[in-house]
Structure formats: structure tokens, C-alpha cells
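Journal club prep — side note

Before the paper discussion, L.F. wants everyone to see what a predicted structure for a comparable chain looks like in C-alpha cell form. Sequence:
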Amino acid sequence: MTAPEFLPLPDGELLAAVDLGSNSFHMVVARAVLGQLRIVDRIKEHVRLAEGLDGKGGLSKEALIRAHDCLERFGQRLAAIPRGRVRAIATNTVRQLRQPQNFLMPAEAALGHDIEVVSGREEARLIYLGVAHGSPPRSEHRLVIDIGGGSTEFIVGAGFEAIERESLQMGCIATTRRFFADGKLSAKRWKEARTEITAEFQQFASTYRNLGWQEVLGSSGTIKAVADVASAMKVGRGAITDSALAAVRDRLLGFDRIQDIKLPGLSADRRPVIAGGLLILDAAFAELDLKRMIVSDYALREGVLYDILGRGTGQDPRDGSVRALAERYDVDRDHAGRIEATALALFDQVAEEWKLNGDDRRLLAWAARVHEIGLAVAHSQYHQHGAYLFEHSDIAGFSRTEQQFIAALVRNQRRGLHMASIGALTDRLAVAALHCAKLLRLSVLLHRSHDTLDIPVQKLEASDGEMRLHLPKEWLAAHPLTQADLDTEIDYLRAQGHKLEVVEA
């Protein structure tokens, strides 16, 4: 199959990652030098986005304003960096929103770049990638734990590859609100809360123990804060041990209320949420029998930067994920390759007119590779089955938005246009998805016979709502089924206000 094109990465190019965390927003700018990254700028702001959740999938006006103002400031710094070199990642809090587009559209306008909402397991992969690059290279297994504001990720990996990934709906903000909503602290309440938290670890703890690990690394503000406190208390230095953690916990429980907490080395911004974060870490040490954790300065944002670096050198993890998915569902790779080649040939003729970009081309290519995965479920309605599988599978490297985009193409490869799947995307992506769906539909239709011969498409012309497909008259006469399918496609498109004209050349 033809590999989707990637944007080459010149030496010295600036890259940027934005992490819209539940507690803090981070931005990191780096320069790519000889295949490595040199950090040139960092900005962190305590936005406390998760504090604005109302429990019904809504977000308070105050949290929206804090997020918008922060992203405007970030956008000023990113103004000179090309679109393809910036990735903004939204995590747990945005995942919980009932209507995320209400947050994303003004947020993207403020930042000046698209924002990707990633699944918990994709967040875990990116965290591991960042932490692994910030540590000495090792082939042995590592356990990485990241306690964020709204979720906590646990990853076992080797080298730069994550082997097992878990993301739990608990973080320093969410856990503080869950167990200490009234602000009161006590040893009894702590013990009961730790028991509840530990029970949630049991779903994966035995699998992780069986894999084993030779070192434990922790990332995120909570873990750094605990390490700072342990150092200031002179019970730890450069790492968090089980005894140091116990000492910090006991000191914290010496206060009756969260507002009274005064731990050495603890910042004022971290004080309101330290109880929940420390509780999670305490439970993790107990359930996984941890003795020592090294604190990493790298986390999700650095992982995002290295992911950009990989994409820019042709080492895109999404290629491997799509290949694995096609193998899992026994896709006819030769046929999918022909669909892809034709779809991309059509794309290249109309991309300028339809204002489609390289990202759209890559997504169309991947959609072509997996357009038949639904056949593993049933031939009837296989386009619907395939769309569901792609949208709801855990696919490394893809954001939720990218999975929704590809699922919309797979869903719309045949039969009537399903505008709801396209309309679920942002305005620009919805337009691009509709155009790409038209191209995939034509490619699937032209290759319906599974013939190995090339399709003699001479030219495709397009305007906003109209396409003119030029095909040899003799070829059409020799393929009456294709001619009938094209007539049906004309009707399908007309029903949605679009026009297809087949011109006999």
C-alpha cells in the first residue's frame, strides 16, 4: 500500500506541544536538532479546568474564561510556528464534557491551532513516550505512573514502546473532591478512601505484576510536589521511597482541614489538591508493592513532541496501528491498496479546489486501508460495523477526533450519505470529511468487482457541490454494473444537494 505522505522535518525546525490538563495547561517549544529535541521554552499555568465540571457534562463560565485567556497567551507564542508543527492535546476533563465542541471551538480560535481530544490509553502512550525519552535508555520493563488532575495513568513499557496502558478516572482534583469535599482530613477517612482507590487498581494489578518491572518512574505535578515535600522534610532526595511517602502522609494527616495544610516545599497552587494526589500515590505504592519511584521531569507534552518528531521522519505510530487493525480483521490488503491508490489519485486532482490538506490526505489513506474491517462482523451493513469498530477501538497514535473522522469516511463509503456522522465533527473537519467521503465512495464503487486491473480514471473536476468524473466510453460500455452503480451514486448525492456528472471521454 502507498504510505500517506508526511511533512519532512528540516533540522532546526521549531515544534510545540500544548497539554490542556485538568489542573494545569502546559506549553513546550523545542527545536529539532539531529533527530533530538532541544527545549527552548516552557510555560505552565494553573487553569484548574476540572474545578469547573458540574457533574452533568457542563463546564462553568469561570473555568471557560480561565482556559480561553490562557490559550490566547499560548497562541501569541505559537503564532510563528507552522500548523503541522504544533499539537494541542486535551485530556480527561474535556473527555467528560457532554458537548465538547462548545469548549473546543472557542478554545481553538484562541490558540490558533486545532485541539485533539485523546482517549485515556492514548494519553498513557504519550506519557510513556515522554518519560522514556527523558530517562537513560533501557530494554528492561519500566512502570510509569502519572497522576493528573482528572485521571491517573499506569504504563508498563520497554524502550520507547508501551506494552500495557491503563487510565483510571481519578486524579488529584477529582479524588480530593470525591473524598474530602468538605475539606476535612482524618486518618480514618484516609484509610477508608485508600481502600476504595486500591480496589480500582485490582482490574489490572495482577497483569502488571506478572509482566514485572525493573524501575518505577513518576511524572506529573502531584508526584513532583510529593518529592519536593519529602526533600524539604529531609526524608527523601531525588526519589520517593515508601518510607518517605509514609512520612509525608503522616505529616499531612496532622492537619484537620485541607485549608490548614502547610507542608514544607509545597506551593500554594498545589495545596488545595495535594490530598487527593497523595492518596492515589499512597494507594499505588501499597497495591503494587512499590519501594522506590524516580521522579521524571518529562511527561505528556514531551511525549507529544517526540510523536511529532516521529511523524516528521516517517515513523508514524498510526501506520503500525492501522496495519495491526487490518490484520486483526483480516482485510484484503491488495484490494484495500487499490482503493487507496485510486482515492489518493482523485484527492490530488481536487485538493486545491476543495482546500484539503496533507492531514486530510493521510486520514483518507488510512480510511481506505480499513474500509472493509466491518466484514469481520457481517456483510450486511458492514460499513456501519466498520465505522463503529474504528471509532470505539483503542488505536495507538490516534486522537478521538481522528478516529471520528476516519469512522465517518468508513460509514459513508456506500449507500446513502449519513450526515450525522459527519456533522459530529468541527465545521472545517466536517467539510473535509464530506469531500473525502465522496472520494472514498467513488474509489470503492469503481473497484467493486475486485478486479486487479487499473481503473482508467482520466480526470476528476470538482467545485463546492459538484463533481465531473471523466471515464473512457469503451470502458464504461464494458462495465455495465459500474455504470449502474454510478447512476445510483448520482441519486444518493443528489438527495443531499450534491451533483455528480459522469463524462464519457
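L.F.'s comment for the group: The chain is about 50% helix and 15% strand. Keep this in mind when we get to the figures.
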